[in-house]
Amino acid sequence: MGELMRNPTVMQKVQEEVRRALAGHDKVAEGSLTNNLHYFRPVIKETLLSCEIVLLGLLVI
């Protein structure tokens, strides 16, 4: 979440995509999100990869 906060443009785009995917749904179901989040998935994946690299770097030192 911190990475998204540092990039407000990316955060806004992700929020819009999630809101569009959930529009008209009373409850959030995994099935309703899996096919509709084409921008969100790579953003989260990239964030997790960057965190993993930092953690690995700390373990090596």
TrEMBL record:
InterPro entries attached to this UniProt entry: CYP450_71D (IPR052306), Cyt_P450 (IPR001128), Cyt_P450_sf (IPR036396)
Membrane disposition: Single-pass membrane protein
Subcellular location: Membrane
Cofactor(s) named in the record: heme
GO CC, one annotated term: membrane
GO molecular function: heme binding; iron ion binding; monooxygenase activity; oxidoreductase activity, acting on paired donors, with incorporation or reduction of molecular oxygen
Keyword terms: Heme, Iron, Membrane, Metal-binding, Monooxygenase, Oxidoreductase, Transmembrane, Transmembrane helix
Source species, domain of life: Eukaryota
Protein family (similarity comment): Belongs to the cytochrome P450 family.
Protein's name according to its UniProt entry: Uncharacterized protein
Origin species: Panicum virgatum (Blackwell switchgrass)
